[in-house]
Each structure stands twice: as C-alpha cells, then as structure tokens.
C-alpha cells in the first residue's frame, strides 16, 4: 500500500521535509536568542536611563573602557568647556536623517582631567566639507553638565571607517585615546552625550534618547518558524493520505465490471 513512498518523487519530498523541520526549529531558536538579547538590552538601557546621575569619575577614568552595564548611565561633571580645541565628527545625521556634524568639545574638570562631551548635531551648511563649521558657543565659565556615558566608537560597532587625512579639527569616530594624544591631557574613557544644560536656540541639536529595539518582533518570528516546522510533518501526512485515497479510487475504477450493453431488438 505504501510502496509509492519508495518512488523517486516521494523520496525527494520526504528528504526535503526531513531537512526543513530541523532547519526551521533552529531558525526559531535563533530568533528566540535574538529576542532575549534585545529584551535584555532594552531593560539595561531603561535601567541606566532611569538611574540617578553620579559623578562621571565614579564610572570612568583615563584609559577606562566603558562597559555594557555603564553605557547610557547618567553622569554629571563640573568644569569648563574648552572650545578652542573642540572638533566635529563627520557624516552624522539628526532625527530627520539630515547629514551634518556632531560637536565634540573637551570639558576640563576641576581636577584638570578632561572628559569629551558630544554637544549635539549641527547641519553641514558651510561653504565646503573641508571648512570648519560655525559652532554655537556653550556656557562660559565653570558649569555643571549632565550626560549619558557612552563607550568609544569603533568601526566594528558603528560601521564607520576611521578615515585619515581629514581636514583640520574633523574626525570620523570618537576615541578618547586618540583625543588624549591630540590634547596631551588625561582624558576619561568614553564620552558624554550632553543632556543638560540645553543649548540656547536649540543648537547644537541635542541627541535623543536611544529607542527600544523591537524584541517582540523576534519573538513572533520564533513562534512563526516553529509553527512552520510543525506544519511540515502535518502536510506530509495529508499528502500521503491523499495519495492513498487517489490510488484506491483508481484501483476501484479498474476493478469495477463493465455494465452489459442492452440487447438490440
């Protein structure tokens, strides 16, 4: 009855089904891992953003690598902005995907150490890409700033190449180690994304809070793959039963005796 399963067509169909089932299960497991990673990241970011600000030197120091747990944590610093040695970070976009610069200003702490402060985004509306843009001045004198602590940028994490030979006072990636060499100062590891005080005239444009990653989408994909995996054997059984039914009907038609022709008068 089931000898047809040994035919070339059915052997191929069965092998394909046997390959699809574990493949779909593994894809579902991978999506579930992605869900767990994104969910954990969202919780970590939310916890950091809602934590009470702490002095910056409690979380970082010269040469320190900002960890995943320290990232986005709100910190405070007391000192003054050194605008004479600020630089701009090229090819950065704002909330409307307009290309411009991030303004990176050294902030000299009361003990002489320096922390890099990303003051926000400005448009690239200068006469050329090589000209240093006009940057609104930050508050003068000693001030207290608050910002989100961020790790140094890398090509691997950002996808941005660290190009050399750029115009004066322009960089591609924010690196506390490289800035320490340029400034000849003790620079705290990582940098701050400024949140307070807000700039006058809303420029530079402050960088918004990080958004939640869509972890629920990965959860839905995982369930979808597992449903597909369960549907494959179900579909295979349905096809086998249909084949058996069709073959039985064909056999019945062959075995059915022909009706006798009526005799002619």
| End-to-end gap | 47 Å
Order of helices and strands: HEEEEEEHEHEH
Averaging pLDDT over every residue, what do you get? 89
The largest sheet, given as strand count, sense and whether it forms a barrel, is: 5 strands, mixed, barrel
Question: Count the helices. How many?
Answer: 4
In order across it, which strands form the biggest sheet?
A: 2-4-5-8-6
| Poorly predicted segments | none
Helix coverage percent of residues?
25-40%
- The count of strands amounts to 8
- Return Rg in Å: 33 Å
Proportion of residues in extended strands = 15-25%
General shape: elongated
Backbone structural class: alpha/beta
What's the SSE blueprint?
Elements: H1 8-50, E1 54-55, E2 74-81, E3 87-93, E4 99-109, E5 114-123, E6 143-150, H2 155-158, E7 170-171, H3 176-183, E8 191-196, H4 215-255
Parallel strand pairs: 1-2, 3-7, 5-8
Antiparallel strand pairs: 2-4, 2-6, 3-4, 4-5, 6-8
Mind explaining what this structure looks like?
With 265 residues, the chain is of the alpha/beta class. Helices cover 36% and strands 20% of the residues. The chain has helices at 8-50, 155-158, 176-183, 215-255; strands spanning 54-55, 74-81, 87-93, 99-109, 114-123, 143-150, 170-171, 191-196. Strands 2-4-5-8-6 form a five-stranded mixed barrel. A hairpin with a 4-residue loop joins strand 4 and strand 5 (114-123).
